[in-house]
């Protein structure tokens, strides 16, 4: 298929184009939706584009235009209108965070692909395998906050929803060949995604420094240096509205925290900072290191380890989940997701009957019925 022959999408940035979009949405019982944000180009990412395909027409909604998008968001929250995403989790979080929109009536082609046991679950892979279309992913890291959008950006964004409804048809036809449990797995996962709370994009500089790879191996003084350097970097990045890594990378912060160089020459020693970076920030970095040397060290926090029974239960539950997923040809997370598995493993005492298992609240009734007896056997093995 020659993708260039597909008409370019309509950019929705005024009342007339929004009315055209809503008119198309009114004709549908399901629409395709996607979003684009700019995490690689700003300190605090935001939704820069909302793609919608409805009534065989493609639209690029511009939330940066100042247009009142409430009529569209009301459609997103209508459970009777199916909104088809691919890998909706991040999109739903961003829509909720930026616009207080809670999407209802969700369908997700990645969820179906996982339930069907697909290993390559990216949109391009699925569109290629099911529809025979090769998508161009050249704009993956594009700055979606730039205006005007280039034709290449518009074409790329358009392709994220243009084929979604046809892809959904293919995957639903395959799902129909599976047993009832497969359908229940999909419904359960979609419900989980819709109800997910929290915001993984939320920054917490006071604690995020400790998440840098290698921070846990530093002594108390080095940890103090890393924290102060990290807070400085976040302040600069926020002021300039650029991603933190564009100020100075984690690897460089770790080097400074470990070695505590006393001058710019030592900063650029083997394995150290690039000379350009040391020249630009050397003076302020040395000041931060000197200040940190006069502050209290930050002791390592002891990781709370689970009990022996928890570790044993988690181990046997993971083993059973993997085996069951293999037998069913589905993804292990659709048997038990991580939160549920860990919650079950922490139970004390472990349930010994189906009624007790049901009352824990971790499993839907259908999962208790389908897998309950096997899970109880897992607990007996863990106690073994």
Judged by helices, strands and strand pairing, the structural class is alpha/beta
Order of helices and strands: EHEEEHEHEHHHHHHHHHHHHHH
Give the integer mean of the pLDDT values.
Answer: 95
**Which band does the percent of strand residues land in?**
5-15%
Q: CATH superfamily assignment of the largest domain?
A: Ribonuclease H-like superfamily/Ribonuclease H
Named at the architecture level, the CATH assignment of the largest domain is: 2-Layer Sandwich
Number of helices: 17
The CATH topology assignment of the largest domain is Nucleotidyltransferase, domain 5
Radius of gyration: 25 Å
How many domains in all?
3
Helix content: 40-55%
State the end-to-end distance.
Answer: 59 Å
Strand order of the largest sheet: 1-4-3-2-5-6
- Please give the CATH class of the largest domain: Alpha Beta
Shape: flat
* Main beta sheet: 6 strands, mixed
Compute the number of strand runs.
6
- Residue ranges: pLDDT <50 for 5 or more in a row? none
